[in-house]
Every structure is written in C-alpha cells, then in structure tokens.
Specification:
265 residues; single chain; mainly alpha
Length: 265
C-alpha cells in the first residue's frame, strides 16, 4: 500500500519534475551561450517546454490552490513565459540565465509542501485584477533581473573581461531592454492597482492594506527610477538599486506578508 501511494505521488508529479529539470537545463544552457556566443534558440525552446509542463501540472493539480508557495511557483512560470516573448525582439541573454534559474527555484517548494485548495470562484473584475497583478509582478521581476544584468555587464566592461562573455551583447542593447521592461512594468503595476480599487471597500477588514501600501510604494519607486533616468541620466548601479528596492516592496505585497500570515495561522 505504501509503495502504491509512493508510485501515485511520483506519477502525479512527473510534469512538475519535467518542468523543474527543463528550467535547470535552460539556465545551464543559457549560461553556456553567454560565454560562447551561441544562439539562444535552444534555451528558448527548453524554457518554453518547461513552462508548458509547469502549466500542465498547474491545471491538473493546482486548480483552486492558493498560498504564498503556489503564488511564487506561478509567478516564476509566467515570468519565464514573458521573458520568452520579450526576448523575441529585445536582447537579454544574461537575464535568460537568471529567469530560468529563478523559475526552477520557485518550483522547488511544490515538491516539499502540500497546498490548500478552494473551489470558490471569482468575479470577472477580480479575475482581470489577478491577471494584471501577475503581469505587473512578472514585468517588474524581468526589469529587476535585467537591471542586475546591466550592472554585471558594466562591471565586466570596466574590468576588461567582456571577451570572456561573447554572448552578453552590448551594454547599449541591454540597457535598451531594461528601459523597455521598466516602462512596461510601470504601466502593468499601475493597471493592476487601478483594477483592484473597485473591489476594495475596507482595506483593513479585507486584509489588503499591506498589499495596497507595498504595491503603491513599488510603483512610486519605479516612477522615481524613470524620472531620474530621464532628468538626471541615472544609469547602472543607481537605477538598478531603485528598481531592486521597488521589486522588494512588490515581493512584500505579493508573498511576504502572506507567507508570514500562513505561518502564524
């Protein structure tokens, strides 16, 4: 009986295991392409398959699931999917390493914990808010990873080590990708905030006051970054620092407080 339960558990998690392994393989291959200058086509294919396998597991096992662990896993997959789309027209070879590694890391807790589920449905406006919130967080995550990429690439150039990473691309191209993602995140987070306003009647009673505070703080920090770049020419570490602080605020809005509350209950 124990053996059959173990077999059933493994069988149920095959698609999750496949997704995890494909994300790891995509991250390793992206790191190799970064050094060798090889095309990232195979990386994108592996990542796309990883997202597909992860979404298959989500549909069959996590429908109605909730909690910080589930939110993290889902956001990791959506961020990887968004990275695939953006990479079609904006180069970000360094971020491809980071985003696939992050997606693999975010899936790991699903192997170790059980997640609560609920069958309650949500309204159309609430569904729209969820979609925009996921999009905003994913875009912000990509912007943060691309900001780290620009800082790292700038450091390699200053140390005359760019020759060791022939697939990294130019600093100008990577900065262009970062600016695009930052503007995109700014719009997406703003739309997510605005779409959630109609459903809020009492922020404290509905236990969303912390989400509103940190989400608005993250959007304000993004605004400061874009204004600072436009008016004062912020680049590299200065701009990246503001983006990462804003990203941390958004993580607190999305996962942090939720995870603490789950541990207290």
């Amino acid at each position: 009986m124990a053996l059959s339960r173990c077999y059933a558990t493994i069988h149920d998690m095959i698609s999750l295991l496949v997704s995890e392994l494909l994300f790891v393989a995509a991250a390793l291959l992206a790191a190799r392409a970064l050094k060798s200058g090889l095309p990232t086509t195979a990386v994108q294919l592996l990542s796309a398959c990883a997202v597909g396998a992860g979404l298959l597991y989500w549909q069959t096992h996590l429908a109605g699931a909730h909690g910080a662990v589930v939110s993290m896993a889902g956001s990791g997959m959506i961020t990887a999917a968004l990275a695939l789309i953006v990479a079609l027209f904006k180069p970000m070879p360094i971020a491809l390493v980071l985003v696939n590694a992050a997606a693999a890391a975010f899936l790991l807790p699903l192997f170790m914990v059980s997640v609560p589920t609920t069958s309650t449905g949500i309204s159309g406006s609430a569904a729209l808010h969820v979609v925009l919130a996921v999009l905003g967080f994913s875009a912000f995550t990509l912007a943060a990873l691309q900001a780290l990429s620009v800082v790292w690439l700038s450091k390699q150039i200053k140390q005359h080590r760019l020759g060791d990473f022939s697939g990294a691309g130019s600093l100008e191209a990577n900065e262009s990708s970062w600016v695009f993602l930052t503007y995109f995140a700014w719009v997406a987070v703003l739309l997510a905030i605005l779409s959630g306003v109609p459903s809020v009647t009492d922020a404290v009673e509905q236990n969303v006051a912390h989400k509103i505070f940190f989400a608005v703080l993250a959007w304000i920090l993004l605004t400061v970054v874009l204004a600072g770049r436009r008016l004062r020419g912020w680049r590299d570490k200065t701009a990246a620092s503001w983006v990462l602080v804003g990203w941390a605020a958004l993580i607190l809005a999305w996962f942090g407080v939720k995870l603490v509350l789950e541990q207290l209950v």
